[in-house]
Amino acid sequence: MYALIISLFILPVAVSVLVLILPKNLSRILVIASAAILSVISFYLLVSIEEPFHFGVSHYMNEVVSVADILLLLYFGSVAIRKKSWLVGLLTVLQFGALLYLLKIIPEEYQAQFTVDKLSVFMFLLINVISGIISIFSLQYIDGEDCSAFRKKYFLSILFWFIAVMNIIVSSDNMECFFLFFELTTLASFLFIGFRKDEISGKNALTALWMNQIGGLAILGAIFFIIHNGYGTATFSNLLAHSSVPGILLPLALLCVAALVKGAQMPFSKWLLGAMVAPTPVSALLHSSTMVKIAPFIILRLSPALKGTPVASVVIAMTGFVFVAAAIGALSQDNFKRILAHSTIALLALMIMMAAVGTPVTIIAALTLVFFHGLSKCMLFLNAGILERIFHFKQTSDMDKLAETGPFTSLVISIGFMSLLLPPFGAFMGKWFGIESLGVLAINQKMLGAFVIVAIACGGAILSLLYFKVLGLLIARTGDHDGVKFEKTKPLYSATISILLGLIILSVLSYPFLMSHYFVPVASQTLSLPIEVTIYGWKLHVGAMALPVVPLLIAFLLLPITIITATFIRFKNVDRVKEYACGEKTNYSFSSFYFATDRATPYFSVIGILFFITLIVVSIL
Amino acid sequence: MKDILIPVLLILLAPAIGGLVYGFERIVKARMQRRTGPPLLQPFYDFLKLADKRKMIVHSTHAFLGIMHFVSLWFALAVLLLGGDLILVIFLHLLSTSLLILAGYSTRSIFSHLGANRTAISILCYEPVLILIAVSAFMLTGSFDTSSIFNYGASLLFKMPLAFVALLMVLPIKLKKSPFDIAEGHQEITGGVELEFSGIFYEAIYIAKWLDCVFCYTLAYLFGANDPLLGMGLVLFVFLFINGLDNSSARVNYKQMLKFSLVVALPIAFINLLITILFLQL
Amino acid sequence: MKLNSFRKKSPWILHYNAGSCNGCDIEILACLAPKYDIERFGIINTGNPKQSDVLLVTGPVTKRSRERLVEIYAQMPEPKVVVSCGACACTGGVFRGMYNCEGGIDQYIPVDVYVCGCGSRPEQIIDGVIEALAILEKKTKDLEQSIRLKKEPVKEDTQLNRRDIAAEIKEIA
């Protein structure tokens, strides 16, 4: 067990070094093989780990972590000097001071630094499977990039190094270690956003850097308050053990700030939107599927301690607001990747909200959302890459001929969007769970629950409006293109997309099974509560909530099969007629409707800042 | 046995009932304008005539999506009548509407696109209100199931009159009645999404309209569910109200509709939810 | 079951103005208004060729409107009838022989009923429509041959592609 977990940390690092050295063909084989191995290992861990598994590595490791922390901050300092960014410099100096002070006062007793429980394994599976698929995809993608051969290798190398970092961060219990790897993910996103080396990438990379450094600073603050208030060592397990002690709210709130920054909640949404200048596999991996999932991960970890506290209430209210605001912001966008980024922010808000509510059902909802959002957003981003490379466009308004030129891509993107939106796909299940269980919440925290329901209802409707806007363009074709012939893309592209599509369809089909054997155990271990799942009549009962399975399964038959059939079906012996245009014979071109909602963004940012201030104030009081 | 039999019969006969309601509606509307109006069975004559037309489509995807709109709407209605989960019903209705919207987008037709855009906007107008009403009902009865509303001791109308007012405000949007018939706008965009369907394929859209009638009046019936007389009275009231409004008002534009729904209907539903959870909870 | 008898119970009307002076058009609209109330025969003014059975045409067919007329006619599914309303639509009326007009709509599409009058009265129009319904009941679902309508079945299917069926109209020799 130990060896397997360690191999999840070591193997990607080894691959990351080897990729730099090996020739192209060998490194291709290596990447594909290691992606497969990592997925298999994480799957094995999923099956085998029952109880939380604590382990420490030799205590030299702590010194290594400290040294690495200092080196990292020195690097940030050099970036600040090179780019002449006083914000990065200021934050680096602050972090450096805090770190040195902490190294002095951290007590000398060493506990196990790592805990691998079901939640970690849940994240392992998501990280390794998705990263594996994306790294295979980027083999092809990076080939078409306009840069030197070394930088292509360098890209793959950082990608694998990032996988190792993610694997460690979800299993680390020690917060100092957590801080290091949190900042390493920041570094990864800084390097990737600046990968294209043009002016706008450099600027957005710096924005991402300083915003995420605030998160790092918040973690350091949390460590400081934990030690200062005398709760012993700064570990997550220790923090949860002290959850009922007064004064614990401040470190909790600071960790929440770190999570909210990483999850790009307003006003920090700017970095995630700016991050869309990075190469598309990066957007898929870091900025939608895995790295930003650290946010719900932290809240899920803390949810037993957070539940019912004022901090949780502020987080819930804030994410409710962000859900609506991000959805409104998305309506004014035309760039495909930016639309995806906005909807990522909205759905992250939903996940964080569900995790912060902390009842068994909402935890399951949060896990469901994390899982399905990871899969479908990854698929959508990879398709954005294909659109860019093969069809050469980035704007959604150019998509209106896609159903004729690239029916396969168009079909896959439609399925991806539908998996985010409509019944019976997974993300819908999450949303639905949310509404149903927040109905339960309203009994306890009445006003808050009511507001959140309004937020979910409105945000959900606005998001569906947004998705229709894109879906409508994807499906449009003229009667001359009635038969469908799939286009040919590169083999690695179609292979990765097909795997993802298969995974999504498989996991939706097996949703009742997945829930009882995958999400529920994770949730029950996270909350240390037994959760009962029974099937009775038409319904799947989870705790106090009932989920009608039979209508849902029929609904499943309806929607995706409808869309897929609609693409292929061809009615025989039926006349084809031109569209009605008052008898005119002109060919019209269409674009989707447009809402000028970006005027509201500054106001949203101000409200977001107010929420952050409230969060800290509430925790001190 | 009887519990199951009545809903199943209702579901099977839903298109027929909807057709009668639609025919009756046309007569009532004609009488309001002091004319005779078509016979009661007129919708069925239309139905049989349309079945006899030569088949003609723009392209297969479009035609198929229209048929599936009808099928999924019938399914949503079935779940509602069988006492299913109210949130699920609302989402299933969203699903069926979404298929119609996709059908509208799938052609390169101006009016079809305009209609689809407007239908998408009208979803934004009525869906949040319906969800809030469903949650308020949940707060009272303790379950999202429609059947629990039937088993609940008192009529929802007297427990949450504001919710009924909000429902009255959004039902014209859902039924595409004036002043909120922007999605259809016969004089303006000649039917919107339904424009490109013809013959037997239009029939699916046409019957789906009848089913929508049944769906909406069932929602109204739920407010008097435990007293059939009150329920029928409510349905009759909603029927007369909607048709009277339809005859006596001019069409608004989509911004006005959005404003009305988000500034008037949604807050009313929200206040109703607050009152329910603060004062009326179990 | 023979469904022919239902055709006359719900004839849906499409009204096309091929360059009329609006005299006949207001009479047609008067039919639909409460006084004459042709909805009592199940008639609806759809404004949409794809769902209508009766095409009411007014005007002498100006050269700019003739392609649209044929296009709209091609978009109506069979069985269908055409009623030409007013003297202009029947023969060209006072505009006959002018440089910008054709002489009546029957040069381009097959006409079933001619309603005379310059503005034809609402009663006449109703009469004409009722007359047309009797013809509609006997019609088959085959495509009607008009002067300008070409039949070109698509090769792989037995369907007709109407997208190009009403292709450009060349000058009559």
TrEMBL record, chain A:
Coiled coil: none annotated. It comes from Ginsengibacter hankyongi. It is found in: Endomembrane system; Membrane. The chain crosses the membrane at residues 6-22, 29-47, 59-79, 86-107, 119-142, 154-172, 178-195, 207-227, 239-261, 273-299, 311-332, 339-357, 363-387, 408-428, 448-471, 492-514, 545-569, 600-620. This is Hydrogenase. Residues 112-145 form the NADH-Ubiquinone oxidoreductase (complex I) chain 5 N-terminal domain. GO terms for cellular component: endomembrane system; membrane. InterPro entries: CPA3_Na-H_Antiporter_A, ND/Mrp_TM, Proton_antipo_N. Residues 172-437 form the NADH:quinone oxidoreductase/Mrp antiporter transmembrane domain. Keywords: Membrane, Transmembrane, Transmembrane helix.
Automatic annotation (TrEMBL), chain B:
Its main location: membrane. One of its GO terms (cellular component) is plasma membrane. Keywords: Membrane, Transmembrane, Transmembrane helix. The chain crosses the membrane at residues 6-24, 63-81, 119-140, 152-171, 229-245, 257-280. It comes from the Bacteria. It is a multi-pass membrane protein. It is found in: Membrane. Pfam families: NADHdh. InterPro entries: ComplexI_Subunit1, NADH_UbQ_OxRdtase_su1/FPO. PANTHER family: FORMATE HYDROGENLYASE SUBUNIT 4 (PTHR43359), FORMATE HYDROGENLYASE SUBUNIT 4-RELATED (PTHR43359:SF1). This is NADH-quinone oxidoreductase subunit H. It comes from Ginsengibacter hankyongi.
TrEMBL record, chain C:
Residues 21-131 form the NADH:ubiquinone oxidoreductase-like 20kDa subunit domain. Keywords: 4Fe-4S, Iron, Iron-sulfur, Metal-binding. InterPro entries: Complex_I_20kDa-like (IPR052375), NADH_UbQ_OxRdtase-like_20kDa (IPR006137). GO terms for molecular function: 4 iron, 4 sulfur cluster binding; metal ion binding. The keyword Hydrolase does not apply. Its cofactor is [4Fe-4S] cluster. Belongs to the complex I 20 kDa subunit family. This is NADH-quinone oxidoreductase subunit B family protein. It comes from Ginsengibacter hankyongi. The lineage of its organism: Bacteria, Pseudomonadati, Bacteroidota, Chitinophagia, Chitinophagales.
